[in-house]
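Hey, can you fold this?
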Amino acid sequence: MLKKICLLLTFTCFIFSCNNDDDDIVPVCETATNVSSNSVTSNSATIIWETTNSSLSYTIEYGILGFTLGNGTNISTSSTTLELTGLQANTTYDIYIQTICGSDNISLYSDVYSFTTLVPNVIPEFKTNLSELNLFSGALNELNITSKGFEYNLSTTLFSDYAHKQRIIALPEGTSMAYDGDGLPIFPDNTVIAKTFYYNIDERDVSLGRHIIETRILIKSNGTWETGDYKWNDAQTDAVLDLDGSSLPVTWIDTDGNSNSTTYKIPSNTDCFTCHGNNENIIPIGPKLRSMNFEINGVNQLEQFITNSQLTGITNSASVRSLPNWEDDNESLENRARAYMDINCAHCHIPGGHCEDESTLNLAFETPLEDSDIVEQSFSIDYRVSFYLDGLSMPFIGTSMMHTEGVALIQSYLETLE
């Protein structure tokens, strides 16, 4: 009998003990689910998630794609919505969320959620620093063009003391250049045109790097163009708006292994108006349709613009004349020389140009020879290009040396006119 009583008491104690353990069991802290984002901009995003717990708080850890947990940025919140700010543009981020149900009751991390910030719009304003215009992505000195802009090239280029140039057009979202004949297209307001000048340290091995000198900017605002120039710092990390102009020594090694040096002249805003002014208005010089109508790597540049909806009002490039490449030996000597004078001289020597009152020359490529006054002024042309003297030789500004190859071309052409 006593043995039965003992067994009954033991069983009763076991039952009560189990009931007390059930009271102490803590519900599992569930992991956040359905993580998503909205209102994503170039530097911010709103993160949203769901949970089944009546949680007191959440810990969000985030970082650039592939970061290791524990090394990210942590934020605590009691809401299931969180705005992240101060993010890098055009960058993919990973997000992890932990639910905090109590000091000793924390959920597992959520599955990783990733989102990418937007590419910032190009800013059509003359800010203090070039980086503020958003023309490039990543490290500025890599000159990686933003996806909001595109590169353009010219069949015949302006001589600038053998400097290399990168050319960019950035159109406002949803707009295009409009066809307006062989010359300049119609650019919408808030278009930004940029041209960056640089020298490769050694032309035989471009992997050795380059020295970026300046970035010239044209911005169209309320129907008129404005100019500005950004001078790159010695560290090559940014460029600062400088409207006064300056000079600096540059050196480089050419493809033949020869060391070259010059005192490079960064133009002042007054100099910019001298070349870009026409009838008291500033206009672009280079991006005429006839100067961009040629093949690059087997693809016609204008056709590519049309395909990309960057150029409208024309269905193909066939109706646009082409400015010859002055270095193309397959072209006639006249075409090469006239193309060279068009890009290097005609912005001043055309009706409305800076030299209109000083010269009768009209050096636009499409001007017939008999109307250009080239024959009548051949002696003067030959003399003014045959040496370099600041303020007297031609071009009047924009160079610090004579272009040997260009001068030889012009003189060879002038000899045929005698």
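Oh, and this one too while you're at it.
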Amino acid sequence: MGQRRRDLTPDASPLAHWGSELRAWRDRRGMSLTKLGELVRYNASYLAKVERAERKPSAAMARACDDALGANEALWRLWEKIERAEAGGDGRGHVASSSGHVASSVATLDVVGFDPGPSDEEVTLPCRTADGRIVYVSLPRRAFIGMGMGLGAAAAAAPAAFGAPQVSPAPAVVHRAANANPVQHLNQLRMVLIDSDNMMGPRPVIPTVEAQLNVIYQLRQEHTGADGRALAKVHAEYAEFAGWLYQDAGELRTAQYWTDRALELSHTAGDHELAAYVMARKSQLAGDARDPLMALDMAQAASGLVRPRSRLEAVCATYAAHGFALRGDTNGCLRSLDEARTLLTRLDDDPSSPWGVWLDAPYIEVQRARCLADLGQHAKAAEAFRAEIDRLPAGFHRDRGVYLAREAAALAGCGEPEQAAAIGMQALAVAADTQSARIVRELVTLDTSLAAWSGVPAVGEFRESFDASIVHQA
């Protein structure tokens, strides 16, 4: 006998109304939660919680459900109405921050307010379905972080995670001393966190960065004038860094939120160079999301703001090249990459500018390799990746993993399965170390490409190891 489904109370809240409308559209289409979940690539148990107003649907989920159910934007418009109503309130959300860390030295202050952030985002994970396909599923981000789930632990821990309670973050606490310079301290801490991210990946760093964002938000309530603008600049820098961390963690909606926030704050601080850099980063983020129009728009808009013959101008040209590649424009792509290389030889740079200092000829060439792969020139891409990986400094552990995974995918694309599998195993080890979703997404592509050669021992070993590292359909 089937279990009687729970009655809904649409008048209880706007979210309850949305959930009841979702169920009504499912009933109208004769679609189960399981079937809807397959279409929108969200776990059915999570969709059930959205129907019962126990979880708030994200924008992506609302749009996907509307499309899958043929609701003619009825669900989408209702979701937008809820968002507008919530924005009319005090606008404060909360972020998943760690209560135990605020790096500073002296006595405590009272509870602080929070820098508004996404309140109910989800972690997207690759999941092996019963028929062997890999799809992406979502679970609450706080449950994921609270469980300490890494790549290797995902398969064992994920079934419990879908029903795990959310961990409520405690508010950050500000520590300060008389005559202390918080801007200098926060800048020094950010550099330490950047080094930590390079070696260990984003997950260990995210709680600390979000704690500092909360601290900065409260400090800005107390300072105006030059001090206030200096804190706004630091706020923008931390928001941009948070956007990068979430981008590498594969949570692109949250990455977009923090990158947008960084752009707003850079204008608040009156720092036009920082604003241009953040716009270039928005181009990079759009490239990772495989959105060629946004990648090109943001790179070209940023290019119009930067100082001619600056390193940032070369950054913009590099990210524009990826936009052209995603659009299939080989000439535009190669022209932009060559422009970036030429700009590097003619720099009239301000040595005090911190933005884009990592851009050098090897970085442009590894982006060339990525573009060649997107353009289908796999053999050239694999050769270019190998040359640049060999030149990569030892400290860039996570980036090495990303490039190894892309090299492996390129090798698979040009019919070299054994070599692709061997390099894929190296990338998988880095992914386990750093929990970088950018590496995992490249390995999903590699795993799919290698399926035709499953009988090759090296390929079988890689696919078995990768399969053990991802969640499986219950």
